[in-house]
């Protein structure tokens, strides 16, 4: 069994919270984490994110601050910016956004006015709340129009996207999302954006690490602006970045600060810098390729067990499953799998007849297990556990779930999680 990491000061000051942190460390160590937006950061990223940089206020940008005493902070932020530019090959990078949603809000502030038309993938089709969906501020402050996927293939129909863009003339077009298992055709989106006069924003939050590692095409030659979180496949702290061509640098920076935020979280900036340094190493490219290889192998094993995968498979880190043929709702399956030590999330599938809080599907991904060193040779076992877990969920068989949990824990013990071991 992996023991919790030592936290002597926290344990002395607040034993109740320390116990909860320790319990979470054990949970992350012992369970098979398949949520595609989660990962394990390195011990170096953990350490950088918990330093005395917490103590500094740094409104403004490097060399242009509203507070004194920024000699070290400016160097840290410049380091993160320079590394982002090098890893992604961009002309400009802003590492200050607090998370992905504020980063996207900054894009709207930079390029649109309230009431303007904006365009993105519909949330139930795999898009993100901040791409103009109605319940988000972006759908309330702007006129959101949405595209989707074909019902027969689960793939984006670019003829339909073009027709919608030319008819609606949006100021901004977002491509990317939260449940897209296929390669994003950035060139096709760029052509449509040019024809319709829109700013193209590539939201690569889920696939940033795959792009950095060369396992997914880059949007850099095609998109005006690139938005991303810094965790997920990039294996950094919970933060975000905006990257762009130099012509948009001033608009982006002004939108982030002072448009939306005050002082940046310097400890997060440091963690981002470390993660980008790690992403520049040859080992990270191998990691990115392994994430995709594991996802494809897992998809094949699930298909062989009769699972219905949206679009028929995956090109990246993510698999979206429609459990309707299994006659088990997604929420029921997700909760049962959690009891079996397999952490997934229930998720809407395209054209889902069920409600979002009780949908037909589950969403899984391979970033976390790949970070542990688990490979394609294990994907048959993972698929078998999912298959047995879903069947146990339908039958209400708690003993079967308990048995799966023991098997999962045995494999997890053999492949310690980065940042939690040692």
Automatic annotation (TrEMBL):
Q: Which enzyme type, at the first EC level? A: transferase
| Pathway annotation | One-carbon metabolism; tetrahydrofolate interconversion; Amino-acid biosynthesis; glycine biosynthesis; glycine from L-serine: step 1/1
**EC number per UniProt:** 2.1.2.1
What are the binding positions for (6S)-5,6,7,8-tetrahydrofolate in this chain? 123, 127-129, 246
Question: Catalytic activity, per the record?
Answer: (6R)-5,10-methylene-5,6,7,8-tetrahydrofolate + glycine + H2O = (6S)-5,6,7,8-tetrahydrofolate + L-serine
What cofactors are annotated for this protein? pyridoxal 5'-phosphate
Please name the InterPro entries in this protein's record: PyrdxlP-dep_Trfase, PyrdxlP-dep_Trfase_major, PyrdxlP-dep_Trfase_small, Ser_HO-MeTrfase, Ser_HO-MeTrfase-like, Ser_HO-MeTrfase_PLP_BS, SHMT-like_dom
Keyword Transferase in the entry? The reply is: yes
Modification type N6-(pyridoxal phosphate)lysine: residues = 232
Boundaries of every Serine hydroxymethyltransferase-like domain copy: 11-386
The alphabetized UniProt keywords are:
Amino-acid biosynthesis, Cytoplasm, One-carbon metabolism, Pyridoxal phosphate, Transferase
> Which residues does the annotation list for site: Plays an important role in substrate specificity?
231
- Where's it found, cell-wise? Cytoplasm
Q: What does this protein do?
A: Catalyzes the reversible interconversion of serine and glycine with tetrahydrofolate (THF) serving as the one-carbon carrier. This reaction serves as the major source of one-carbon groups required for the biosynthesis of purines, thymidylate, methionine, and other important biomolecules. Also exhibits THF-independent aldolase activity toward beta-hydroxyamino acids, producing glycine and aldehydes, via a retro-aldol mechanism.
Summary of subunit composition and partner proteins: Homodimer.
By its UniProt entry, which PANTHER family does this protein fall under? SERINE HYDROXYMETHYLTRANSFERASE
Q: Which family does it belong to?
A: Belongs to the SHMT family.
NCBIfam families listed in its UniProt record: PRK00011.1
**What is the protein's name according to its record?**
Serine hydroxymethyltransferase
